[in-house]
Design a protein that fits this description.
The chain has 69 residues and is an alpha+beta fold. The protein has 1 helix and 4 strands; from the N terminus they run E-E-H-E-E. The chain has one domain. The longest helix has 9 residues. The N and C termini lie close together (12 Å). Bound molecules: iron/sulfur cluster (SF4).
């Protein structure tokens, strides 16, 4: 689910269009917290792609709570 990118950050392996994977991950994450609705990108409201702790990277996203999740 995660790999260490060139900046030493943990990045989601599914990129920006693994809708099922991002929803599955968020459904078991105790830190999921929905972002403001304008920032939603996934149809499934419970998704890492819609979480206020994800930070978009060039090809995917990193998670501000990754070390705790
Ligand atoms: S805190 Fe991180 S792992 Fe948990 S749902 Fe949000 S982006 Fe995904």
């Amino acid at each position: 689910m995660w790999f260490t990118n060139q900046r030493g950050e943990e990045e989601f392996t599914g990129g920006q269009d693994d809708w099922a994977g991002a929803a599955r991950l968020a459904s078991t994450c105790p830190y999921f917290n929905p972002d403001v609705e304008e920032e939603f990108v996934a149809d499934d409201p419970v998704s890492c792609y819609n979480c206020r702790y994800r930070r978009w990277s060039t090809g995917s996203f990193t998670c501000l709570k990754k070390d705790k999740a």
